[in-house]
Design goal:
Two copies of one chain form a homodimer. By secondary structure, chain A is an alpha/beta fold. In chain A, about 40% of the residues lie in helices and about 15% in strands. Chain A has twelve helices and eight strands.
Chain lengths: ~300, ~300
């Protein structure tokens, strides 16, 4: 394993969105603010605050506008942390623009079944719409990340042809979008597939800023992240406590756990600027809040003592 | 990640020993026989039946001789699976010889504190004794694997100098022992350290048959296995269900889970000869037997459907 790329890893915590949307209990806004503030203080590079989605569909995300209003106030504004949000359609994008979102995330599913269930549109319809939105945001000088969901397989459809995934990536790339994430909604990624897909994207254009988003359904999440980094993936999406899952997928399991991931790369020798203990405290707090064990390891064991 | 070595991986399930010794409830011999038979039928290469240790110390291992007697009967003898056992001292070795053990495993801890707690001897005293035993077994044409426990760090002492670990390896090597395992008793291994230690052993002698034994205390177990294989490690020690831990270490957590590991390398494209469904059934049975969730992922989710 070539560790050359590990120092330039950018960590994007998506627990406040991908984590909380899966929980039956909604988190009150005071607690959300506290967790986001702790994530910022810990030194995580990008924190996903929430999604702009119909509140009837995902009530846990109803206060996303309000959260951004709070963090837009000069006294609360993070100095260097980027606050991202997921937007699903034009209306969400408008809300995001009004909220001065630091990074817009949006995507399409490579699985037609998942795409229909999630958006009511085919993959190609959904992508036309997403590309149009992304272009509008880029022309307004906004930071945008687009994704291919179910990029490594789908709980409904099983394997997804790698050519289909790469076709979607090429469409994004042709539209001038450079920050592209592959999301493993179902947890189907394995190190060999991760290696093939990202090296193919790198061959397409070495300047694509690649991102990854793995779920840990089968225990391969961390290994997939490490192989992705080796292949040049810079943005790693994780969730504190290992929370997470998509409510419209078949068998949901948590994201790769932020503090476990940070602990791993710190032990390898990188990103020692991040405050692991603070991350562990957030996970412990979340575990207490939801009154259950979360999937993360390190918040239970504490980090390795050297 | 170079996948070249993945096809020659040899899987050594240690759940019957490292797994069961950690459980407060002893498993009856009928159930043990059933699980071992299923492991054999699944196509696991080496199955560790138990340890020859003072029954007062680890009562869960009291029936190891009886288990070997059962599997030595012509009608029960596995055709190609090797049945291994852990031996801790000369008395255990004698019992193992009487039992016609297929592979003798024995080791010393690189941590002086762990060595004292586990054996009452310093590392170097323990190693002299182990080497003497290993030589005796080899001269009787027995298959032997020696190990360095706490090779990646120790719950009591923290970091263990890599030079100390390599020094122990060199002692083994000078004594003519070629099958050498590094055991991560505390779960402290990380991919960079795994890479450094195994590549150093490979440099010492490319013909050393390297083995690894990782615990998953911090979630890095599977990633460590994959990096170890890349570095030329052939024998991978895992435990069904992710059971396991050393009763004399500080913070014990399960071994890398056999069925999760098999699922991973099968998804990567190798060892499709192993019957994953059968492994999943054993883990489910064990989970029912101990009336608790085990750490493994795949026995809960089922394997990825392609």
């Amino acid at each position: 394993m070539n560790l050359e790329n590990f120092n330039s890893v950018v960590i994007h915590d998506v627990g406040m969105r991908d984590g909380l949307q899966m929980e039956s209990e909604s988190v009150d806004i005071e607690t959300k603010i506290e967790w986001i503030e702790e994530l910022i203080k810990s030194g995580i590079d990008i924190v996903q605050v929430g999604s702009f989605v119909h509140t009837g569909k995902i009530p846990q995300m109803a206060d996303t506008d309000e959260l951004f209003q709070y963090f837009n106030k000069p006294e609360n504004k993070p100095k260097k942390t980027i606050l991202s949000a997921l937007v699903l359609n034009e209306k969400g994008m408008e809300r995001g623009l009004n909220c001065n979102v630091g990074m817009f995330c949006m995507g399409v599913s490579a699985s037609e079944t998942h795409s229909m269930k999630n958006t009511g549109m085919s993959t190609s319809e959904a992508q036309s719409r997403i590309i149009k939105m992304a272009k509008e945001l880029m022309s307004a000088n906004k930071r945008v990340q687009v994704s291919v969901q179910s990029a490594f397989g789908c709980g409904f459809e099983g394997d997804i042809a790698e050519d289909k995934v790469l076709g979607i990536v090429k469409e994004y790339h042709s539209a001038g979008i450079k920050n592209i994430s592959l999301a493993d909604t179902a947890g189907y990624g394995n190190p060999a597939k991760v290696q093939r897909l990202y090296s193919a994207i790198r061959e397409l254009d070495k300047d694509v800023e690649m991102a990854c988003h793995f779920h840990n359904t089968y225990g391969m999440g961390l290994a997939n992240c490490l192989v992705a980094i080796e292949e040049g993936v810079k943005y790693i999406e994780t969730a504190f406590g290992g929370l997470g899952g998509c409510p419209f997928t078949k068998l949901a399991a948590g994201n790769v756990c932020t503090e476990d991931f940070v602990h791993t790369i710190q032990n390898i020798g990188f990103r020692k600027d991040i405050d692991l203990d603070r991350l562990i405290k957030i996970a412990k707090h979340a575990s207490g809040f939801f009154v259950k064990d979360l999937p993360g390891f390190v918040y239970k064991s504490g980090g390795i003592k050297h």
